Amino acid sequence: MTNAHLYVLDTMADWEVGHLIAELNTGRFFAEPGTALPVRTVGATRAPIRTMGGLTIVPDLAIDELAPQESALLILPGSEIWDAQEHAPAAAKAAEFLAAGVPVAAICGATVALAAAGLLDTRIHTSNDPNALAALAPNYLGAHLYRNEPAVVDGDLITASGVAPLEFARAVLSRLGVLSQPALDAWYGLFSTHEPHHFHALMAAVPQPA
Fold it and tell me: Is 108 annotated in the active site?
């Protein structure tokens, strides 16, 4: 079964990917009953990392062990240390994924790493703030493609602000096409408004196993 891959690093912002990885890993609302995209973790090495929330994660594999053809998605979360040289291979791996036509989803600080690697120079994108993005990635040439939106999809690249984890998840799930549109709309409505009628719509939109 194909996996989704989450890059993990010290000070990872746990909440930015929480909605997304829960839905991918369980497949509980997927359009095809009984399917999922199990999430495997990837690190700069296989050494344990500690998230901003204090969780210790031992990566399933190192970044140099990951091949695009073995993945359905590469997720790059926010962190305070994306500028560390040891994480440059993750941005290089993102370039490999995009060249191979495999989606890459980056949120918050991860978008700075992609900007520094030149991956946002020719793609529509967003981040936390356009001025901060330019300041933190001096070689960035994509300001004309920046969009002041919570999350943006341009082909196989999904980017988002760090304050938009729900919109990030919706954009990635939409790009992957794993939920029906009615289910995705109801899912987003439920988590964004907390109104119970969206829960009933979601249950009605999810196909039941035969």
Answer: yes
